[in-house]
Amino acid sequence: MIFSWVMLTAAAVFGYLAYDAARLSTPGKDVPYSLTAKGWAEDVAHVSLAEQQKRKQYNATRGIGDLGQSVWLFGVLCVGCLASAGCSFYA
After folding, report:
1. Are 53 and 32 in contact (CB under 8 A)?
2. Which helix (H) or strand (E) element contains residue 48?
3. How far is Cα of residue 44 from the mean position of the Cα atoms in its chain?
4. Cβ distance 71 to 23 under 8 Å?
5. How much is the pTM?
6. For residues 59 and 62, what is the distance between their CA atoms, to the nearest angstrom?
7. What SS3 class is residue 90?
8. DSSP for 50-66?
9. Which stretches of the chain drop beneath a pLDDT of 70?
């Protein structure tokens, strides 16, 4: 019975995280590369805008840290926890 409540609580937490990530996410094309680089403690003050654009394209195809993907991760975890709680409540 305790497991059911733990899973239900975890589902609520993951649901909130999915909502929060969805609210905070913006398309990658709208974010300047200087903000992305700041998150990695990379100084781009001396880098030309053309080079920043090239790095932004590389980051868009191979980068990490896109909040749009976090929404899916937290959403799947929420649904999984809800399914687990539902099965354990009715078992």
Report:
1. no
2. none
3. 24
4. no
5. 0.66
6. 5
7. coil
8. HHHHHHHHHHHHH----
9. 28, 63-67
